[in-house]
Specification:
By secondary structure, the protein is an alpha/beta fold. The protein is built from seven helices and eight strands.
């Protein structure tokens, strides 16, 4: 089964009840013009076993420790973002998940050429994604595509920096 990725970009209360993630929205709960029945129905419940990643991208999200523990027990990756919407933290279950430990070990033991090739793939994808967004906005993207195609292993020419400045 494919696990779900949940993104929270608005104020919310996240808790757990009966192995479920419970999402409550303060804007709905505190709105005096909404009927009480609607407020109760606005609460979302998601089975924790169906979740693979949770991304928290708002400074006014409250999450219970019990929920964090249950997410980690179910090997859910928990990512937090800062006020500029960039990921700043990753919380993973390290205790009982041997697969994750094996992945960490493989990453640490990766050869330098492999790391540089993976970085090359990452930078190419990043530049292509930036170009796609610029194209949607009607901008010329030929130079971005040229830079994406020209990225070498390890990006020694800093094409990522050039593309970022252009972007």
């Amino acid at each position: 089964m494919i696990k779900r990725t949940l993104y929270f970009g608005n104020p919310a209360y996240l808790s757990t009840h009966l192995e479920q993630l419970v999402v409550r929205l303060p804007q709905v709960e505190k709105n005096s013009t909404l009927p009480e029945g609607f407020k109760k129905e606005a609460q979302a419940v998601i089975p924790i076993e169906d979740i693979g990643v949770v991304i928290i991208d708002h400074q006014q999200i409250i999450i219970s420790q019990a929920l964090l523990a249950k997410l980690l027990d179910n090997n859910v990756a928990f990512i937090t973002c800062n006020h500029t919407h960039h990921p700043t933290g990753l919380l993973l279950n390290l205790d009982s998940h041997s697969l994750q430990s094996q992945r960490f070990k493989a990453q640490l033991e990766a050869s330098e050429p492999l790391k540089k090739q993976l970085w090359q793939q990452t930078i190419k994808a990043k530049i292509r994604n930036q170009a796609a967004l610029l194209k949607l906005q009607g901008f010329e993207i030929d130079n971005m595509l040229h830079w994406a195609d020209s990225v070498k292993s390890g990006d020694p020419e800093n094409l990522e920096g050039r593309a970022s400045a252009w972007y």
